Structures
1.
Amino acid sequence: QVQLVESGGGFVQAGGSLRLSCAASGRSFSTYNRGWFRQGPGKEREFVAALRRFGGFTRYGDSVKGRFTISGDNAKSMVYLQMNSLKPEDTAVYYCAASTGSWGNADSREYAYWGQGTQVTVSS
């Protein structure tokens, strides 16, 4: 089992940047594939990015490609989401997630472990 805690959310103007962090504790985090999801007001949870547990392979949702970057540090049990060129439509609660299944999965049901979320608000 693994516990996840996100941080780094906040309020930013359009065009700005934020870096989200996800700290993992519990069973060795290096054995999990990781992902970031978000849920905006009145919207369904949306896939943002995924990181394979080894090898550094990444996958992104279409709405964030070229603007967001997922990365990780297995030694520190951390996952990061660098968000650049933020838009008002990026406003959402962002969640870190971990999966023992195949990596890069955009289906939130494939992730067994979730953090509590961190709010990101982008003003126009």
Note: The longest strand covers residues 18-26.
2.
Amino acid sequence: QLQLAESGGGLVQPGGSLRLSCEGRGFPYFAIGWFRQAPGKEREAISCINSSGDKTNYVDSVKGRFTLSRDNAKNTVYLQMNSLKPEDTAVYYCAAVKIPGRWPPELLEYDYWGQGTQVTVSS
């Protein structure tokens, strides 16, 4: 059983930055995805990275602002979020899938989920 834990959320002003972390023992063998869910909206996939860290994918709304990386030695994936906007406000979740059937993986392929961390972008 893989357990994931997100951290790094908080309140930031528009234009600011945050770095989210997703940590989980044993996950160097898993692709990791980040999702977010705003109140009243469906959960949205925003980025993913393969197990070796040499392949990433981003949704158009975060391209050029968010960067996903991983340090398998530390069992941690990092989501660097720059130029944050109020519309980025949501609960952010990381998730893991061992063998994706496609790239990027679909939401239903992910086997393990973290509890989420709140990101609020507001002045």
Note: The radius of gyration is 13 Å.
